[in-house]
């Protein structure tokens, strides 16, 4: 490929050199022709002067007549003159080549003219040949680059920086931009393909446990010896079905978000309404453990009445996932506290529980898909590991953030930052 580009540059230089030589030949030949004609003109002037001198030396009285004839633009004496010159071999329509004075000068002129024309034609032919060869080489280079792009080989993007342009600088820049765009799209497709494989693997793994448990419950239910055992196993089956239903719902939500099948419809909504929706989603789960959910606002402010521009349904579900997590891992008769802090460009919502807390190791990983903490209580509690991941995706898609830190005494504090509408 390097040889092709060097040859292409050589072709352009050769064409320029040949064109320069051709122009030089024409200039030299034109100068020589002009010099030749000027010499013959000088010779003719001498001949006319010699004739005039011969006539005036013998007939001095004819000087005025000679001067008048030389100044006569009507050529009154032309016919008389030609009639006299005819006696000595001159004709009225005599060609320049028939004149012995010019014939000797023109004798080498025409062959040399033919040679110069032939050389110019050869030089022009060479120019066309090198230009055509260069064009074909650049077309082949373009073909190689496009074939490389089609084969997902983007090495020309690296090599091209140190090479001469194809056709022109602007065309080469466009070609490089096309290559970079195709490379980016290829990487995105590969990433999406890997992501899809990982998602399918994770979903299969997550569904395997509840399906196996449900199958075992039904088998034992069919083999039960009494109605009491059968009822007990049916109740377990119902619990497994509920768990499976919740898991499938969460998996569907994740897949819809990650494949952009769900478009977040942002609208003006009061923070109080959003929090009310989230609390209502987990209210029934707080009753068995007598857990209280309370909202603390800054003194003298009604922070919960702050208008936001978010997707009400999905944002409420994200907050509900955090509340559900807090209720799930908090002891009975405890409190889940929501604190609001308004800043210049965002709202900070803190959700503090009195549960088992989050270890520093798990703090950086609990927002990953399907990840569950290493605490023994977490392992004993049913869960899919998608709630916190789903909350993070929903908030980040709307310009928000989420993080977690240990509480002062016990439990965890999940911190949400929600942008204000005028700063989105």
Looking at this protein, list some descriptive labels:
424 residues, 5-stranded mixed beta sheet, 3 domains, disordered N terminus, alpha+beta, Heat Shock Protein 90, two-stranded antiparallel ribbon, Helix Hairpins
Describe the structure.
There is one protein chain. With 424 residues, the protein is an alpha+beta fold. The protein has three domains: 2-150; 171-257, Orthogonal Bundle (Helix Hairpins), CATH 1.10.287.130; 263-423, Histidine kinase-like ATPase, C-terminal domain (Heat Shock Protein 90, 2-Layer Sandwich). It is 63% helix and 10% strand. It has 13 helices and seven strands. A five-stranded mixed sheet has the order 2-4-5-7-6, covered by helices on one side. It has a two-stranded antiparallel sheet with strand order 1-3. It is rod-shaped, with a radius of gyration of 50 Å. Residues 1-8 have low confidence and may be disordered.
Shape descriptor reads rod-shaped
Reading the helices and strands in chain order gives HHHHHHHHEHEEHEEHHHEE
- How large is the count of helical segments? 13
Helicity, as a percent range = 55-70%
Approximately how much beta-strand content do the residues carry? 5-15%
pLDDT < 50 runs, ≥5 residues: 1-8
Question: Total number of β-strand segments?
Answer: 7
CATH architecture identity of the largest domain = 2-Layer Sandwich
Helix- and strand-based class?
A: alpha+beta
